Structures are given as structure tokens and as C-alpha cells.
């Protein structure tokens, strides 16, 4: 099989069960097995759904900063707790725990890569945003 370059910014990479890897269009497929790798050039908060919270109830999520810097916000797990702010700069990553609501705000235009399962993700509009 020939090896060809994959445009990470217009494709999803599916790390499938049994060690297979598949690249395809950026249409999420919640029924696909294995893990999903996505990459985005984010110039504004709108590029990372800054007005929304996201959660994956099926898996942890790795969020990494390849270029730039941004803040990863995690909602409190209980009402009596405070949320968390994690500052990520180029070459760093954070693991978002399974079931933890999170969002991103850019400090500078950034290139972001995330790895998680394609199923179990939900998004909700942020109050006031």
C-alpha cells in the first residue's frame, strides 16, 4: 500500500482497534471503534467553540498545544469546588478526565491537537457566552 501525506487539518485520524489507522473526512463517526486524533489551526476562540463546554463521558481526552498558547478551563466537578485553569504553551499537553466539562480560550493563534474516543462527546452552550 502506498504511503501518502495526510492533511491533519481537513482529516480525522482514526486509531482503530487491532492497530489499524484510517484517515478520513472531518465528519465525526461516533460508531467508529478506536481513538480519534484531530488537529486545528485556531485563530479565534470561535475556531475552538469558545462559547461552549465539551465533555466526553466515554474516555479521557488529550489536549495538546503544538504552536501558540491557550488556556484549558475545566468546570468544577461539584458546586462547592472551583473550576481549574490549565495554561498550555507549544509542546505541552493536558489530560482531561473522563466526564469532565472543559473549554479552550486562546491567548494567541494556536495549533491544537486532541485525541479521544469518537463516541461519548457532548457540547453545551456556555452561560453568558
UniProtKB/TrEMBL annotation:
InterPro entries the record matches: RmlC-like_jellyroll, RmlC_Cupin_sf
Protein name: Cupin
Provenance organism: Actinomadura fibrosa
Amino acid at each position: 500500500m502506498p504511503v501518502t501525506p495526510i492533511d491533519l487539518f481537513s482529516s480525522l485520524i482514526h486509531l482503530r482497534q487491532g492497530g489499524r489507522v484510517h484517515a478520513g473526512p472531518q465528519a465525526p463517526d461516533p460508531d467508529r471503534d478506536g481513538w480519534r486524533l484531530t488537529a486545528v489551526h485556531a485563530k479565534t476562540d470561535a475556531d475552538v467553540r469558545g462559547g461552549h463546554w465539551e465533555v466526553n463521558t466515554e474516555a479521557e481526552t488529550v489536549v495538546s498545544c503544538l504552536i501558540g498558547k491557550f488556556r484549558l478551563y475545566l468546570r468544577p466537578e461539584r458546586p462547592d469546588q472551583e473550576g481549574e485553569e490549565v495554561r498550555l504553551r507549544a509542546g505541552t499537553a493536558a489530560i482531561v478526565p473522563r466526564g469532565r466539562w472543559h473549554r479552550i480560550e486562546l491567548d494567541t493563534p494556536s495549533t491544537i491537537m486532541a485525541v479521544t474516543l469518537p463516541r461519548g462527546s457532548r457540547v453545551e452552550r456556555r452561560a453568558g457566552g
